[in-house]
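Much of our argument rests on the idea that a fold can be written as discrete symbols. Part of our work consisted of pairing the sequence of a single chain with a tokenised description of its backbone. We regard such an encoding as a compact summary of how the chain folds. The amino acid sequence and the backbone structure tokens for this protein are reproduced below.
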Amino acid sequence: MRTILIAPREQILTSRQCLPDIVEAYVGAMFIDSDFNYGEVQRFFDMHMKPYFEDMSIYDEYASKHPMTRLHTTLNESYGCTEYRIMADELPTGEPGSKPLVISGLLIHRTIIGGVRAKSPRYAKIRTATKALEELDRLTVPEFRARYGCDCRNGEEANKAQNTGSGTMGNGSK
């Protein structure tokens, strides 16, 4: 038996895209080998993938704790804000052969918060969400609206809920 090294071990172990790429290649090969018979792909999905999607509630707790999910929930439901966006962009490092640097930030009504640097857009966005949540969790709805100039329609509902004591704050506590 011969082992062929296709990438450094550290790169293989840290690449979260590896498994999805393997599955995509496998399913693609299956589709081509079956003379483009979609039924074969459907059979594979039904047999090997579908059981993981039948009860999605098992993923709810994990997803609700993810920084990106928490950020969207905080902005939409707690503050009623709909005018925000996480942005990430790659910047060349200027050194030949080196990976680009990724910068990311959260834009809320023309104000940028949570700017970070990372090695990939995915991690940059997660770090941005985490940093933004640290700042947002300290704000009441009126403070948020004043600081970011938020006048989103949902903001009225969130502000009303907080003033009556029935809404949630940015940190998820009532």
